[in-house]
Amino acid sequence: MLRLRALFSDIPYELNDKTERHYQVIFYLVFKLMGQFVQAEVRSAKGRADAVVSAKDTVYVFEFKLSDKSTAEKALEQIDGKGYRIPYTAGSRKLVKIGVEFNRVERTIGRWTIA
């Protein structure tokens, strides 16, 4: 997460449209270029997770929020409330939820919470 924060901080401000989708697309591309199996807008019975990264032993479910509208903690609540991890519970991999709060003023990752 620290490396991602540094990456977002390095993007010139003229290229940032200050939307959640802007951060989501860059996040997706980073993991894709690293060779990870990443999906965006992953649909389930009650909603859409912003991103899911499936590794050999772990599935990471991400929810993104903009700091002026919500928090990293609210993102975790949404993962639970909408059941984004449920489709992965039948397997043997560890399930990790990550709430990411993007700071619109600083144009980078502000805070994150991992559970």
Observed structural traits:
alpha+beta; 5-stranded mixed sheet; 3 helices; 5 strands; 115 residues; Trna Endonuclease, Chain: A, domain 1
Examine the secondary-structure arrangement and name the CATH architecture: 3-Layer(aba) Sandwich
Q: Rg, please?
A: 14 Å
User: How are the strands ordered across the major sheet?
Assistant: 1-2-3-4-5
The main β sheet shows up as: 5 strands, mixed
Question: Could you tell me how far the N terminus lies from the C terminus, measured between alpha carbons in angstroms?
Answer: 14 Å
Q: What is the strand tally?
A: 5
Strand content: 35-45%
Shape: globular
Q: Give the count of structural domains.
A: 1
Number of helices, where a helix is a run of at least 4 consecutive DSSP H or I residues = 3
CATH fold-level name: Trna Endonuclease, Chain: A, domain 1
Series of secondary-structure elements, N-terminal to C-terminal: HHEEEHEE
What is the CATH first-level class name?
Alpha Beta
